[in-house]
Amino acid sequence: MGQFSISDLENISGIKAHTIRMWEQRYGILQPVRTHTNIRTYCDNDLRRLLNVATLCGQGHRISKVAQLSEQELASAVIACCEDPHDYARQVNALLAATLEMNEPQICKILGGAVQQLGFEAAVMHVVYPFLQRVGILWQTGSINPAQEHLVTNIIRQKIVAATDQLPPVHPSGTQRWVLFLPEGELHELALLFMNYALRARAQHVLYLGQNLPESELTAVCHTYQPHCICTVLTAVPERGQVQGYINHLAELCGGAKLVLYGPLMFGQHLTLPTNAASPRLMTDFLTLVDELRKGGK
User: Fold this and answer.
1) Taking the domain 177-296, which CATH number applies?
2) Cα–Cα distance, 79 to 92 (Å, whole number)
3) Which residues make up the CATH 3.40.50.280 domain(s) of the chain?
4) Among 70, 197, 220, 235, which is most buried by a count of CB atoms within 10 Å?
5) What DSSP element (H or E) covers 112?
6) What CA–CA distance (Å, rounded) separates 138 from 89?
7) What pLDDT score does 279 carry?
8) What is the pLDDT of residues 247-258, one digit of tens each?
9) 273 SS3 class
């Protein structure tokens, strides 16, 4: 069971601490316990209930009515209300609550509805990415277990692969060619999978090499495929102190191809990028870069 402070609940749910206290004291929606120093702590059930309550109140339901619902009634009401394609916060909260319950059908229903209403790329950008950021907070606070994290990761992975398979094929001639890969030992693939989708949706030809690629293989890949751009995501590999050396080696291996470097290891330290490299901070920045390269023809 996770242990949360009220500030943890505020950060995860987006509900202000003073509102949480009022809901707790006036309506009894949460049941915290107190430490020996009289500090409130909350459990997984408290977080899940708060997320569901916040979802309904965000739609305009009165807290006095929502507080009277049973857990089953609350969950059913959340499923029914997550149909507004532009109410991203409500959809994210509903996904978080379903994840904590390990409710795969509900996760799939919410994601499927967002994709149907917004289109795949917009659903990922507005719903999936904010959701994954919140999952990261849950992971850091120790309130989500590996099984829950693996469940949502694999569902999202399946959605991206299925959407990519539905795109029309792109012939390599007359378009830019991209190589996408993860470094040897790197297994965090979701961002790279979405990049693959986004590039193919923009009629770019992609050689997708996936996870765990030894960098020594890139020389032969570049010689055979002659890519315009090579893209990788640095999440956990290499070690933070080895990132600069890895970037320099990639630049040597990739010749004249443009190097696109993405991921958390690219930030928070002083790195010197080669002249042929770019490092978009956000996925929106990556998409903008792709569009600019398409317009520029290079």
Assistant:
1) 3.40.50.280
2) 12
3) 177-296
4) 197
5) helix 104-118
6) 16
7) 92
8) 998 888 887 889
9) coil
